[in-house]
Amino acid sequence: MSAPNQASPASSSLSTSSSPQEAVIVVKNLTTAFGTHVVHDQLNMVVKRGEILAVVGGSGSGKTTLLQHILGLRVATHGTIDVFGEPIQSYQGKRRIALTRRWGMLFQSGALFSALPVYDNVALPLREVRTLPESLIREVVMMRLAWVGLTPKDAALMPSDLSGGMIKRVALARALSLDPELLFLDEPTAGLDPQRSDEFVALIKALHDQLGFTVVMVTHDLDTIRDLATRVAVLADKKVLAEGTIEEVMTVTHPFIESFFHGQRGARALARADSHSTGIEPTPKAK
Amino acid sequence: MVSVNQSQTNAPLSEQSGVWHIAGDWNVQTLARPGEVARRQRQLQAAPDGAKWVLDPETHLDSIGAQLLWKRWKRQLPEGLDLTASQVKLFDLLATASAEPSSTATSDSLGWLRRLGEGLWLGMQHGRELLILLGNLLLDFFRFLAQPLRGPWKEISAQVFRAGAQALGITALVGFLIGVVISYLSAQQLALFGAGQFIVKLLGVSIVRELGPILAAILVAGRSGSAITAQIGVMRVTQELDAMDVMGISRGQRLILPRVIALAIVMPLLVLWTDAMALVGGMVAAHYELGLEFMWFLQELPRAVGLTNYWIGLIKGFTFGVWIALVACHFGLRIEPNTESLGRGTTTSVVTAITGVILIDAIYAVIFSQMDI
Fold it and tell me: Of A150, A177, A248, B27, which has the fewest beta carbons less than 10 angstroms from its beta carbon?
């Protein structure tokens, strides 16, 4: 039953996608320091295919730095980071381009290109491939916009005309435009009102369910973690303090976990989770 | 049925006794190969409508590949197609999201007329807004005169430093070089007639009356005009202008007035400085080309130029300064919160300022010739 695969090297690891436990990202003994200030000390973390991993931590705990390391925007002082089974530094030139087509990133403030209308923003990654015909791009862009709940009329708007929620939606559509296997979300619900935030979480959840991509998200919002994450990695004391489901993580005794999950805000969010648990299961993981 | 196909899963599309098998890679990485999409579309079109299709469960299908199939199948799944759970989800997603793309491109046969009208309208709008800006500026200026102690002194002095003191180097260099060039060229011609002494009159009048103010204005428009436009434009992008409005801080008082006053003070001074440097350049070139003594040149200069020309140069400098600052502020305030508008606004500001400077210069030339000075 082994499917022969003569595709480009970039897609070679796709053939093993049937194994749910395969690690997409492996961070090993990562050490980062800004001058004498150590951010990460021997940090280890694994992201498995198909899961939604939430990286949580206090301000200044190095969540964003970790994300920059994984994206290859910052080079590690010590330690290795493997993405799709190979060290991130080994992706250079054409291989790096092939890699960037396999992941998408949702930036905190959207990072939409302000000079381009919504349509061109979503079409840009597709056009950068340079070989896709415009007719196909058009269909794919319209499909992406429909996925995130935007109408064809919205396609002509400029980013400056969009509300915060719509910016996030367009940014998500752009991140998804090349059908990534790996999606990074930086504070996906920051700046949205609770209702928009819930809608956005439901949207990501539904798309994740249907497309089966892997998600790494950095967030502060307990509601988002509770509704979306299949696993949580807690960053504190310069390393990953605890990794596991939200229930497992909560059993760890540490001042940060105590205050984050058991503080008043945490208790409230988790109580809400119990009250309407019919709607939001802690993700049964249909594989 | 599926097990039969295993031997030939390499081919993305193959036909076997009227059944079309889809297998292999149908993802964006594969489709990105040059010409791949067109090739597959041709192959898909080769299958007759109502053909029987089989989709291999091992196919690497993503939504872009699925879109190709979905389009061929006229947006509905063919009958008798077996799909895996994840494939069902994928096509469900396509089915719910297949909005017919609306065509936006409409031809416009009278486009040129519309563009002409829009251009005229835009020009009138700019003129009107500039007039309003000037009116507000005058009101702000009277308010400033009424309560000079509460005026934006810090802002004014900062702008004087930025637009004036920091521009001394570049204006000196350009002025000196232009002086050398003009002196050198005219010296050659004047020497032919043995009229070398007239170079003082020629250089003095042309530089003090025309070239000095124009040179200084062009440099200041490029340096400070663009900076003012970009600065105010970025303030719009980062909502600082809105924040000022909310706090009740007047834009006119804090942003426009200090810049206009600063340039109005600085420009005549820069004109003087540029004049001086250009004359020094001309004097040096004349010394080497015609053998004129420095002392004689300097003694001759006041008689040749005259006080009128000196004042005309200063008045021009003042007018140019106010114009450049006004235009820069006007275009800065019109910038929309996106990067492209910022770039375009800055360019338009500099181009308009320089064009306007030359236009104003021409108007002055007509006025002064009517007045016989």
Answer: A248
Among B281, B193, B263, B273, CA closest to B227: B263
Per the listing, tokens 């007329």 go with B113
Say if pTM beats, i.e. exceeds, 0.80: no
Exposed, middle or buried, B167 (CB in 10 Å: 0-12/13-18/19+)?
A: buried
Contact A152 B34 (CB under 8 A): no
Of A11, A113, A140, the CB nearest to B67: A140
Q: Which amino acid would we find at residue B291?
A: G
Owning domain of residue B34: 2-97
B101–A147 CB contact, under 8 Å: no
Q: What is the ipTM of this complex?
A: 0.71
Per-residue pLDDT of chain A (287 residues; tens, 9 = 90+): 344 444 344 433 343 444 557 899 999 999 988 888 888 999 999 999 999 999 998 888 888 889 889 988 888 888 999 999 999 989 888 888 888 888 999 988 888 888 889 999 999 999 888 888 888 899 889 988 988 888 888 899 988 889 888 999 999 999 999 889 999 999 898 888 888 888 899 989 988 988 889 999 998 888 889 889 999 999 988 889 889 998 888 888 888 888 888 777 666 777 766 655 444 444 444 43
Number of domains in chain A: 1
Nearest to B36 by CA among A8, A46, A98, A228: A8
Is residue B63 in some structural domain?
A: yes
Q: Which domain holds residue A264?
A: 21-102+182-191+212-277
| Domain-located, residue B111 | no
Domain membership flag for residue B118? no
CB contact under 8 A, A6 and B10: yes
Are both B78 and B145 inside the same structural domain? no
Q: Maximum Cα–Cα distance for chain A, whole Å?
A: 56
Query: In B, which residues are within 8 Å of A113 by CB distance?
Result: 339
